[in-house]
């Protein structure tokens, strides 16, 4: 493939030009590059990545025990069989991604240490101009591209979200966020408090419990967890029968997706039954004397926030053994030797870990302009969570909360490749989405319905996200099982698409 097919002169400097510019070399960017290679061979493209290596989350997050909270049969790509345990470590996921890069000659298209600072669309030239700064030298690089494929994820990699608690400056120990885990942190013999109750806390606590004097998970309110073996019986059985791994991958994916669909529907139709089953699993590990009602019984119905899978019940086994404990309370303030709780209790700590979530970054903290006018994505309406009204030649990958993120990477990639092929066949240089006449009285709503799904990082920054309508094509439904049929059937000549 011919990579940089020509140079394009801009007012600022000569730049390399590509048919497609992919932002980010994480799970989305690498998957998208694969589909572009296979479906539109001969397309010139480049991947710009801020970090020094590929992997996104799986390379930047280095806290002990980091692992997926989705199974790798569906979090892995549709085109590459996953042959390991369903819940995988970051190291295993990076090795898997590295094979995709090597097998498909993607490495030569990636520019590492390139932080994008601005992206400007010119209607006169039908081009995006992208400015990036190399993080090692500070040099400014300018690229132009016909099409922009945003695969950078949805949160700020440089820093996690830590609330401002009173007295944090008084604490004599260390305060760390899992997203920026320090290499020199020694927890041996230390009293550790992990603030949070999500997948990160549930992963971190059992993985540091053996080293610490004691580790406490401090949560304001409980969350839901699913427990199970880190193995899938049908996959093990098919391997014993020496079935081809590609077949196993597809069979197991279908089985998991069928079961996830049934579980999601059950959460909506019979939430009390699901709640009883989820909490019953925890009670079975912790025993009848543990206060599961206080510490592991959420106030909301299942699936209003993401449900983390706890492989082999390791978090709860750590609690049962006494190496770890859970405190459900609110923080009054930090003090020199720990955290003063609103109940009046003092929680002593040498190290405090704030597993308190992400800072949302709607589109990579990039300054976007359309024909010289600054673009606020919060003012746009999204077409299926992929395109935005008034933003030409750009698609965004935003995955699923209730299913694996990567399922949508594959769906969006197929859509983009079909759209680019359609533009070529029409001789179009530009495409954008626009509300149709029949859409003009449509209610314009926030990106996601809080009654449906309401994680903190979305609720805190909803204003940064595009708006949605009340029609399926004008929203990101979070429903893979519907979208897997609807998105491939999208009529690219529908009035919502405007070509030029």
TrEMBL record:
The keyword Flavoprotein applies. This is FAD-containing monooxygenase EthA. Belongs to the FAD-binding monooxygenase family. InterPro entries: FAD-binding_MO, FAD/NAD-bd_sf, Flavin_mOase-like. GO terms for molecular function: flavin adenine dinucleotide binding; N,N-dimethylaniline monooxygenase activity; NADP binding. Pfam families: FMO-like (PF00743), NAD_binding_8 (PF13450). Keywords: FAD, Flavoprotein, Monooxygenase, NADP, Oxidoreductase. Its cofactor is FAD. It comes from Bradyrhizobium guangdongense. Gene3D superfamilies: FAD/NAD(P)-binding domain.
């Amino acid at each position: 493939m011919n990579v940089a097919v020509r140079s394009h002169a801009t007012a600022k400097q000569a730049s390399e030009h590509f048919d497609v510019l992919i932002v980010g070399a994480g799970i989305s960017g690498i998957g998208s590059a694969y589909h572009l290679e296979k479906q539109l061979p001969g397309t010139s493209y480049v991947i710009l990545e801020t970090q020094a290596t590929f992997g996104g989350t799986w390379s930047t997050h280095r806290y002990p025990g980091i692992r997926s909270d989705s199974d790798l049969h569906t979090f892995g790509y549709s085109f590459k069989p996953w042959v390991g345990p369903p819940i995988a470590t970051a190291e295993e996921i990076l090795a898997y991604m590295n094979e995709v890069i090597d097998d498909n000659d993607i490495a030569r298209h990636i520019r590492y240490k390139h932080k994008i600072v601005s992206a400007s669309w010119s209607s006169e030239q039908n081009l995006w101009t992208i400015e990036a700064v190399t993080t090692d030298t500070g040099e400014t690089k300018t690229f132009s591209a016909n099409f922009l494929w945003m695969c950078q994820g949805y949160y700020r990699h440089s820093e996690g979200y830590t609330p401002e608690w009173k007295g944090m400056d008084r604490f004599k120990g260390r305060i760390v966020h899992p997203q920026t885990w320090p290499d020199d942190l020694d927890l041996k013999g230390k009293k550790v408090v992990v603030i949070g109750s999500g997948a990160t806390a549930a992963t971190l606590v059992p993985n540091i419990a053996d080293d610490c004097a004691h580790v406490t998970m401090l949560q304001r309110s409980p969350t839901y967890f699913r427990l199970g073996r880190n193995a899938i019986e049908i996959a093990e059985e098919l391997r014993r029968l020496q079935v081809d791994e590609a077949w196993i991958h597809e069979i197991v994916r279908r089985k998991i997706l069928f079961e996830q669909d049934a579980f999601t529907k059950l959460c909506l139709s019979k939430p009390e039954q699901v709640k009883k089953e989820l909490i019953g699993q925890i009670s079975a590990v912790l025993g009848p004397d543990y206060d599961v009602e206080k510490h592991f019984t959420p106030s909301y119905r299942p699936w209003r926030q993401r449900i983390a899978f706890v492989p082999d019940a390791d978090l709860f086994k750590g609690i049962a053994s006494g190496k770890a404990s859970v405190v459900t309370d609110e923080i009054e303030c930090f003090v020199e030797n720990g955290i003063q709780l609103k109940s009046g209790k003092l929680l002593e700590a040498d190290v405090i870990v704030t597993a308190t979530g992400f800072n949302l970054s709607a589109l990579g903290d990039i300054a976007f302009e359309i024909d010289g006018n600054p673009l606020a994505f919060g003012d746009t309406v999204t077409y299926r969570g992929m395109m935005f009204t008034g933003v030409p030649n750009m698609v965004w990958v935003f995955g699923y909360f209730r299913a694996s993120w990567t399922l949508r990477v594959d769906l969006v990639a197929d859509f983009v490749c079909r759209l680019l092929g359609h533009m070529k066949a029409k001789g179009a240089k530009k495409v954008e989405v626009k509300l149709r006449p029949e859409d003009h009285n449509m209610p314009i709503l926030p990106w996601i319905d809080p009654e449906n799904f309401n994680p903190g990082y979305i609720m805190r920054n909803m204003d940064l996200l595009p708006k949605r309508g009340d029609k399926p094509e004008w929203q990101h439904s979070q429903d893979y099982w519907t979208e897997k049929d609807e998105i491939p059937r999208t009529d690219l000549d529908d009035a919502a698409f405007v070509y030029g």
